[in-house]
Amino acid sequence: MAKDMMPAFELYQPDSLDNALELLSRFGDRSWIVAGGHDSFDWFKDRTKYAQYVIDLNNVNELKGINETSEGIEIGAMTSLTEIELNDVIRQRYSLLSDAVSRVASPQIRHIGTIGGNLNQDARCWYYRYGVDCYRAGGNSCYADTPEGQNREHCLWGASRCVAVSPSDVAPAMVVLEATMVIASANGLREVPAEDYFIGPNIDIERMTVIEPGEVLVSIKIPNTWANAMFYFEKVADRNTWDFPLVNISRAMFIENGVVSRIRMAAGAVECIPRRLSVVEQVVAGSELNEETAELASQAAIRGATPLNFNHFKIPLLQNLVKRALRA
Amino acid sequence: MITQAKTSRRNFIKGVIASGAAASSSAYMFGVSGCSNQQVSTGGVERLISLNVNGMTRNVDVLPNETLAMTLRYKLGLTGTKLGCDRGECGACTVLVDGVNLYACSLLTHTARNKQITTIEGLESSDGILHPVQQAMIDELGPQCGFCTPGQIMSAVALLSNNPNPTRDEVRRALSGNLCRCGAYDHYINAVMLAAERGI
Ligand SMILES: Cc1cc2nc3c(=O)[nH]c(=O)nc-3n(C[C@H](O)[C@H](O)[C@H](O)COP(=O)(O)OP(=O)(O)OC[C@H]3O[C@@H](n4cnc5c(N)ncnc54)[C@H](O)[C@@H]3O)c2cc1C
Ligand code: FES
Ligand code: FES
Predict the structure, then answer these.
(1) Residues 260-289 (A) with a CB less than 8 A from some CB of B
(2) A32, A309, B74, B139 - which has most CB atoms within 10 Å?
(3) Three-state DSSP class for B196?
């Protein structure tokens, strides 16, 4: 790991979304958006990815902040993870999100790392990051899915040439909260539900979200649907700081007359996209929360899981997290 | 190519002039890097900028792809800010930007324009009295090898300015983005608790 300069690039610091979009359409696929930079600069420093034109969004104030709307809240893509963690409305009504965000990386990273950057961060596969010519990097092999490949962190579902997982602690929470992602380009705005925002290698192996070159994630809308629900977030990682999830779990739930009336759950780091645990939701909805429900749900949660050589442990881990989420 | 080399040579010299005291270390750094001397800028940000560091305005020639840690160490001679991993994974480079602790290795200097940057060198008062956190580090024998200490202190200062009376757990959490290879964590926490007790 050299401590030298990143390769040269030209830096633009637009002060409005319009200017940013104009720069992105001018420079096309030679441009790269930088938010907090905590993912971007690693690629540049390691010389595994390069862009000639870097567009720093830190001066685009219209992309920052958290607003209450009649439908819920809207979070600007350039809002820092710390601001989300400390926001009173989020803590009161959507504590799932503040809990998830508080477990990301380290304090310094959360202070400048943005929600937009977190949701658009790239895969954390060792091999891919190292710069080998794997499928995701445009090559024609997967180094993680070989007999010797180190794939302890990799997926249980959705392998399609690539076995990397969605590394974000926040993405599954967004799926659970039924968030909508607002995306801008020179052609206008479009909205995509969080559940469709993340894409696996079967759809496009070279990116992890529907964001196309020239597009910017502007904000995330969180509807009232799950406001003040009973929330549960848990993350298991090797270390408490700086460490990506081995598995994380997000749950929102309402209980009426002793039975679960509505529930939504998702797990992270088990698939290339946040994995919605629809089967678990079906098992649990309408039931009382007891050990039997938790047991059934935990068995349902792992249906179809296909472990690699070194990640079998993720199966009981996910089962236990599902149980804990249903006991809480 | 030749024109490129010439331009960059000139810019390089400008950089050295701006950096003053750090001339020799910057020559060492940029001499080996191999990428900065290819640099020709045709658009984007201005390179000659003013930074507010430790309460002083410093005029510097900053490359677009330069991190704050590079500028501080090799152009401004503020080598108290350490570079451990250069990847946001150790905390040795922690500085304050508008009072918030950030990793200077993972922040473009241009992004820190118009902000107040504080490094370990900026903590003592003008008459040379150490910051209470610095003094407490000495009194509690906080550091072992000392490499991570500037970063630990910057995180502690950021914590105490928001929360002057933290619990031990709050200190632990606030310093969790600063790795200590020597494992002097408990000593650091003792020092921060002492600084809080004495009052900032
Ligand atoms: C040491 C380390 C540990 C980490 N641990 C965790 C962890 O435990 N859990 C976790 O969830 N994350 C973790 N992360 C990831 C961290 O949260 C992300 O790096 C950070 O959130 C990315 O945000 P950023 O603003 O710094 O992104 P940047 O690096 O600026 O951007 C990341 C990517 O998103 C794109 N992008 C950014 N904003 C937009 C936008 N508005 N529209 C379109 N594209 C955009 C960029 O082009 C880039 O490709 C870790 C990172 C590091 C370095
Ligand atoms: S040098 Fe910046 S975090 Fe390690
Ligand atoms: S004192 Fe040696 S690394 Fe912390």
Answers:
(1) none
(2) B74
(3) helix
pLDDT, tens digit only, all 328 positions of chain A: 456 789 999 999 999 999 999 999 999 999 999 999 999 999 999 999 999 999 999 999 999 999 999 999 999 999 999 999 999 999 999 999 999 999 999 999 999 999 999 999 999 999 999 999 999 999 999 999 999 999 999 999 999 999 999 999 999 999 999 999 999 999 999 999 999 999 999 999 999 999 999 999 999 999 999 999 999 999 999 999 999 999 999 999 999 999 999 999 999 999 999 999 999 999 999 999 999 999 999 999 999 999 999 999 999 999 999 999 999 7
Beta strands B100-103 and B56-61 are unpaired
Domains of chain B: 2-122 (3.10.20.30), 132-198 (1.10.150.120)
The parent domain of residue A31 ranges over 10-59
Distance from CA of B38 to the nearest CA of A (A): 8
Token pair 């950096």 is found at B19
In A, which residues are within 8 Å of B33 by CB distance? 4-5
Is the residue at A38 inside a domain? yes
Please report the beta strands in chain B, taking only residues with DSSP state E, as ranges in sequence order: 48-53, 56-61, 94-97, 100-103, 116-118
Q: How far is CA A173 from the centre of its chain?
A: 8
